[in-house]
Amino acid sequence: MSNKEVKAALKSARDAIRNKEYKEALKHCKAVLKQEKNNYNAWVFIGLAAAELEQPDQAKGAYKKAIELEPNQLLAWQGLANLYEKPNQTDVKGDLADVYQKLLELYESGDKQKWCDVCNKLVELYHQEKKYLEVAETWQKLIRIKQEEGAEKAELHQLWKKMIQFLKDSTRSQDNKTGQLLLTAFEHALKSADTVPGEDHQNLYKDFIQCLSKFPHEIARLEKACHDMMALYPTMSYPLEVLCLHFVHTGTLSEKALHCFSRLLEMDASSGPGIICFGIKCLKEKKYKEAVKSLTEGLQKANQCPAAWHYLAEAQMKIHKHRDAVLSCNQALEALGTAEGPNLRWKNLALQLKAEALLKIADANAAEEAVKALEQIVGASSDPVVSAIRGQAYLNKGLMDQASKISQELLSSHPDLAESHALEGFIHYSQNNYEQAERSFLNAIERKAGIAEYHQYLGLTYWFMSDETKKDKGKALTQFLKAAKLDSYLGSAFCYLGNYYRDIAGDKSRARGCYKKAFELDETDEESGTAAVNLSVELGDMDTALSILNEVTGKASPGTAKWAWLHRGLYYLRTGQPSEAVADLQAALRADPKDSNCWESLGEAYLNRGSYSTALKSFRKASELNPGLVYSIYRAAALEQILGKYENAIATYQQILKKTENYVPALKG
């Protein structure tokens, strides 16, 4: 085949392709290749025809052969790109990216429009593959070429905005180079905006600041962006809110941070971040109840701030709302998700605080949960304070050997740590080794004197050690007073003070005041509530007794607060108000249906009300639960007599007399 015939065959192949006669085209190309096996155009036409005949492997092979022959010729690269772009081509994205890169290289010195078209396709491909760095670098090159061509400011602005759009999800990958390119894109987009100030510019600034807040190492840039935005948009609270939450997250309470907090609240008193910051300020100023109130309110408006949840848990711990603190720690952990970088510090703090709160709840299940929380702390094994908390968790679970092992290791490795000695004290105290416990708690207090719990346990140690230390004002009483002074929310310290004034000092009035304070601090403390009511009755102050009982019963849900219902029911019984007594005693029995004394009192109330049949049932129930209640059996017999059931009454009287021969009421009956 002569050179002329080769050209004619290639022309025929081209015409056949144009006419969609692809098999015909293949014949012409194969004829050419028999004569010239390295004919570039013939291989390109085979690639084209095979691709249209759904023979991708043959097409790919043909294009690659052509590229091998002429690596810097466009046709084969374009054909290969078209082949890879077909929807039936899978797993070729990496190859397609390589083809696009070669096409960019070939177009760069020539057709700029085609270069831009291929560049767009390559960036889209990288974006699908989440290759954000490649997206950023390629798009930046496109913008540079547009700048060289003298593109308008408005076009460049749109290109920078598109780059931001492409990279907005890249902040999750935490790749620093991509992050820097994204921030650069924001800065260029802001500079190239047409209307400043304006709504689009304002929204772009918000997005820029939000993006900056995700980069922990861009603090200076974040602060500058917030201040710049405030200068342009002085009535907008958003930059101040971001700045405040940034200060919250970094744990900073500098003058600058406090100024920022107050400025935000002046601008918008209902701002969630502003209220959160005010709550943290209250916490630092030891105004714990105000802190809980403000942080709770602020978090209802800005609930994705893990640091704020942690501060709320801290404030709740200070006022001994331990179950609430556990819930707040859980919220912090949920907001943190899979934490890394600076967030890891908050995660560790939340897990440690959660464990401490669970230990205050003081049951085996809570202790088990505390151990699980401690296991999730990164680097926990090297933190002696965390080890001490773990030791306490084992102690609460009743695992004495594990607790003792941790205690010994801590005393050996960290003898100057208060927590090491405190753990040893808790172990000795739980084993009634009071002299050793005294020594341990004194050592702990020597190293850290401001912990109320250490003083309280030292006071309890003296209380149970001997009558002498219990009565010695300088021992138990002094420690309870110190505990109450150090922690004015520690209800149990006031309860123990009440015990001292009632049982040792014989000062009923002061004891009543302490019990009342203890109960106000912890409404679940039945011992203090009961003691406050009983002492009020003994002191003839029924108003105080009733106000306590009314408050508890008013808040009580069904089946709870038995002690309060019982006390008030007995009061009504004594004061001739049987209907009220019946209602309260029934409520007490809902909380504890097996209390025989309560059934007996209920029988008495029904009897006083004239409800004889119901009274009979109540007395019978009391004697079933406790056959030793002779009074209930006698009352049942007397009611049977009143109701005309004489044979039953006689049998019941005889039953009493068998047990108690000289029981006069039965003999009379």
Automatic annotation (TrEMBL):
Q: Which residues form a coiled coil?
A: 3-39
Q: Name one GO cellular component term.
A: Ski complex
Q: Which UniProt keywords apply?
A: Coiled coil, Repeat, TPR repeat
What are the recorded Gene Ontology BP terms? RNA catabolic process
- TPR repeats, residue ranges: 40-73, 562-595, 596-629
Q: Can you tell which superkingdom this protein's organism belongs to?
A: Eukaryota
What Pfam families would the database entry show?
Answer: TPR_16 (PF13432), TPR_19 (PF14559), TPR_6 (PF13174)
What InterPro entries does the record tag this protein with? Ski3/TTC37 (IPR039226), TPR-like_helical_dom_sf (IPR011990), TPR_rpt (IPR019734)
* PANTHER family recorded: SUPERKILLER 3 PROTEIN-RELATED, SUPERKILLER COMPLEX PROTEIN 3
Q: Give the protein name, as stated in the record.
A: TTC37 protein
Its lineage reads: Eukaryota, Metazoa, Chordata, Craniata, Vertebrata
